[in-house]
Amino acid sequence: MSVPPLSRSPSLARSLALLAGCFLAIAAFAQPTITQAARAPATATLIPLSENWRMDGDVPVHALLISLQGLANRTAPRVYLEYPKNWQWEIVHPLVGFLEKRHGVKFERLGLDDAGAALERYGQYARGVVVWDKHVRSSLIVAFTIAGVEDLVVVNEDQLPLAAAHGLKPVVDLRGKFTGQPDHVVYQWAYERYFDRCSRDYYVVMGGHAGAEMQPGIADFGIQQRAFFTDLSANPQHPEELALLNKILGRQNPASIVLGWHSYAKDTEGQHTTLVGNYGLMMEGLHNLPNVSFTSQIPLTPDFKFANNHHVAPADTLKAEPKVYLCAVATDSMGIGTWTKPGRGKIPYTWQVLMNWVWMNPPALQFFYEDKLPNDYFIGGLSGPGYMYPKSIPADKFPALAAIGRRLMAQLDLRVLEIMDYSEGNRHVGNTDLPKELVDRYYAEYPDALGFINGYGSARTFDLRDGRPFLSYEYYLSVDRPEDEAAADLEELIQLNPARPYFLLVHVRESNTIEKVANIIGRLSEPVEVVPLDVFLKLAAGAKTYRTYHRLPTDPVNLNP
């Protein structure tokens, strides 16, 4: 975190004491800080982007605009990019209206991909350009690092005349520098020259889409924060890349943030998130999460307070009837699911909140909290602050992360924590259960939680302590599972578990609509009561028809999930 020089004045001692207190608070929470504006800006520039995200298509102009956005937004929220309506993070467009109506922002719209007009307005925030090699994909990722460190706009050779027309000359030229070189050599070159000047609070893995396509939505925030960028592999089959990645992660601050997503062409979600956990870092997934350099600076409106739809008080007890209770939980970020699709509110539904968004994306969380319906209930996850696998986190690093998680859950009015661990398997192979000592740790570190849920696909970790259940998913509803087949699956589960009450916890893959879930439940032959998760947990606390189970040392694992 950069701090402006202190002036020589009688208040110097008081200022130093205040500054020391700020650093102590940051150290206590071990979490990066964001400088927010006092209020949302009265005006900002909105630039719409096309649907073409091919390297040989519109990625060059998008990269230019994203880098310019990161520089222009470094000291104030000035530029918002309007990504296409088919973007994975689907609330880009609804959030514009929310910022206008709720935060009073008036957007001045430029033309589609209008880099010329954008440079005319905001070229002053760059001191030149970095030229990436359009024949070497990874050179663009290196250019993002250089853009943040050197305050440069990212261009390829075709865009040099445009940059020159706005007074921006080449400062770093990567053309021909990496021809024929493997990625570990490319990123080693960048590491040796720029890593020491990069943030220790943020590292960006610019993965996800690979090959001919790139969707670098998170790059504006990475550039704003002067983060180091790569798409290095966590796959042991790529030892040179893995060695450099270990070196990078090992030099980041404790409990700091890894932004972006693993490369679909190199390693797996399980491999990369496991490695991040080994260092006690937090993963904030989505390589294409847009506009964080803008939204992170927008404070909550003064009249707003996070308030969940609680249905029970912590001290309440509920008596379950001899029937089937079902709870549906959607994870993977509300902004990439079906929040804006028809059907929300039709049945009780539970949504997992990305807790770090309280400081990374405040207006988005305010949008969700204010837009919720009575049947919407929020929980925290995944596994703590950010996306992490608890089995991969060293025991001595767990308490610092849990302290952040407790604080965020209190701030967001959340009483249930969802846990997921793919470090030893996934929903297809291996093992997603938690050993007893880790379950012990969650109970100890989150004493105010009503309970915990575990898994992604179905899992077997169950417990009950002091009226606080620890339950696992019984079923995973994939996007491509037809309604009749999913209903047959649930029918079979209900028949295989004849004891009543039976608590059927269903994980709904985020792209399934709520209407689909309701239709599936409507097909069941036995009456099923759908309840919100806090009610579900209180009922399960009073009727333990599930067997306590933790991961055993003899359980099969798969370290390449």
Give a verbal description of the structure:
This protein is α/β, with parallel strands linked by helices and 561 residues long. The chain folds into 2 domains: 43-295, no CATH class; 324-542, GxGYxYP glycoside hydrolase, C-terminal domain (TIM Barrel, Alpha-Beta Barrel), CATH 3.20.20. 33% of the residues lie in helices and 16% in strands. It is built from 18 helices and 20 strands. It has helices spanning 12-29, 59-72, 92-103, 115-122, 137-150, 160-165, 183-194, 219-224, 239-250, 269-278, 292-295, 357-360, 362-371, 398-411, 436-445, 483-496, 514-522, 533-542, and strands at 43-48, 79-82, 106-109, 129-131, 153-155, 170-173, 202-208, 228-230, 257-263, 282-284, 324-330, 349-354, 376-381, 416-419, 451-454, 463-465, 468-472, 475-477, 502-508, 528-530. Strands 11, 12, 13, 18, 19 and 20 form a 6-stranded parallel β-sheet that branches. Strands 8-7-9-10 form a 4-stranded parallel β-sheet. A 4-stranded mixed β-sheet has the order 14-15-17-16, with helices on both faces. Helix 5 (137-150) links the parallel strand 4 (129-131) and strand 5 (153-155). Helix 2 (59-72) packs parallel to helix 5 (137-150) and helix 16 (483-496) packs across helix 17. The model is unreliable at 1-30 (pLDDT under 50).
